[in-house]
Automatic annotation (TrEMBL):
<dbReference type="Pfam" id="PF06325">
    <property type="entry name" value="PrmA"/>
</dbReference>
<dbReference type="GO" id="GO:0046982">
    <property type="term" value="F:protein heterodimerization activity"/>
</dbReference>
<feature type="domain" description="Protein arginine N-methyltransferase">
    <location>
        <begin position="206"/>
        <end position="358"/>
    </location>
</feature>
<dbReference type="GO" id="GO:0010228">
    <property type="term" value="P:vegetative to reproductive phase transition of meristem"/>
</dbReference>
<dbReference type="GO" id="GO:0032259">
    <property type="term" value="P:methylation"/>
</dbReference>
<dbReference type="InterPro" id="IPR025799">
    <property type="entry name" value="Arg_MeTrfase"/>
</dbReference>
<dbReference type="InterPro" id="IPR029063">
    <property type="entry name" value="SAM-dependent_MTases_sf"/>
</dbReference>
<keyword id="KW-0808">Transferase</keyword>
<keyword id="KW-0812">Transmembrane</keyword>
<dbReference type="GO" id="GO:0009909">
    <property type="term" value="P:regulation of flower development"/>
</dbReference>
<feature type="transmembrane region" description="Helical">
    <location>
        <begin position="13"/>
        <end position="33"/>
    </location>
</feature>
<dbReference type="GO" id="GO:0005737">
    <property type="term" value="C:cytoplasm"/>
</dbReference>
<keyword id="KW-0472">Membrane</keyword>
<keyword id="KW-0804">Transcription</keyword>
<keyword id="KW-0949">S-adenosyl-L-methionine</keyword>
<dbReference type="GO" id="GO:0035241">
    <property type="term" value="F:protein-arginine omega-N monomethyltransferase activity"/>
</dbReference>
<keyword id="KW-0805">Transcription regulation</keyword>
Amino acid sequence: MFMWSLFICLHEVALYILSFFGSMTLRLFLFFLSEMRLPNGALSTSKSKFDDKIESSSAKMYFHYYGQLLHQQNMLQDYVRTGTYYAAVIENRADFAGRVVVDVGAGSGILSLFAAQAGAKHVYAVEASEMTEYARKLIEGNPSLGQRITVIKGKVEEVQLPEKADIMISEPMGTLLVNERMLESYVIARDRFLVPNGKMFPTIGRIHMAPFSDEYLFVEIANKALFWQQENYYGVDLTPLHGQAFQGYFSQPVVDAFDPRLLVAPAMHHVIDFTQVKEEDLFEIDIPLKFVASVGTRVHGLACWFDVLFNGSTVQRWLTTAPGAPTTHWYQLRCVLSQPLYVMAGQEITGHLHMIAHSAQSYTIYLTLSTKMWGPGAEQGGVFQSSACKVDLKEPYYRMSQPQPYPLVQDQQPHQLIQPQDINIQSDILQSEDLEDRELLRQQTLS
Ligand SMILES: *[C@@H]1O[C@H](CO)[C@@H](O)[C@H](O)[C@H]1NC(C)=O
């Protein structure tokens, strides 16, 4: 008891000094302390790697969100997501049969149940939210699989497992792959729980990027700020705030499913190898960009999406969120420039996509795109055009109410059932439902 209170006391002092000096030695000392175990074998509840970098208010909302069944249902009903995971596991039985598996951020426990179906010897399902209660129920209700699954409540940064795992399974991807900063937990879990050269499902992730041209989207965003151009709003001149309102709308990344014909150059990609990447590598990601425009047009920004590979020893399977492919609950993401660029076919577009992690489990994104103009003056070094924007990945604009050129597969059936005259009659009802849908989508697409 005394030792414990002394430990707490030392720990508080260390924290206090750390907040003053932030010295590396103390950080190591603190790390040593937070890894210390209580006599009963439980980890101390002191600050963990997770708590050090994530605001508690953000974490609280995050785990509350994933603790709710409706959000789990939303992810389970993304059949591209769930179906691809199922296929990747079942087609690679050899990687699971007789193996110890850890499911990182298990949620409802569905991936643990798939692993058990594929013959896993034992699955440890680690989940930090209150969803563990439902996961236990689901697993108990499937006893032939459930007897080989143990649900462990806690963060992968903090919990202990009784044995090392041969293979890890997880769904750590957020919008633009990196949103939610769960990839960091995935690699921390790798270093803590996986045997050397153990398998990871998914194995690698790729962020794909291409410039796009979308006059409608650009005008839509620019027009949102028109409100602030009123000089007589109940006798008040609103124009002093127009500039900031305009910039504000362009600082939101747009999340929707767009027509791939809007892309104006072949995409490039950036690989994140989950088996090799270090946690710190994910704090700041700087991707140099270089494209060659296929057409002459106005470039309105950069379109991004991702895919992940399940590098099974029998079958390699990709889960893609590309435009034109069946739509997932991740959709695609676009950063829109308030100052479009003019390009000609064959012209080079260069730039940077610079992403810096922040403590609200997301990233600030700095995008720069530049072109060197052809034509008169080109010989003297050319006319340089450059446009930049700063967007917060945490504050996306979900643009789902817009007409989608590519109908969502899941949506086709209900739409066919609605007669055109019904739509007219119910237009105001639809509108209010639409608002609800958008709010729901806004919440859902956290994942
Ligand atoms: C996939 O796994 C094989 C070995 O099983 C390895 O040689 C290959 O490099 C892996 N590919 C990727 C992309 O990780």
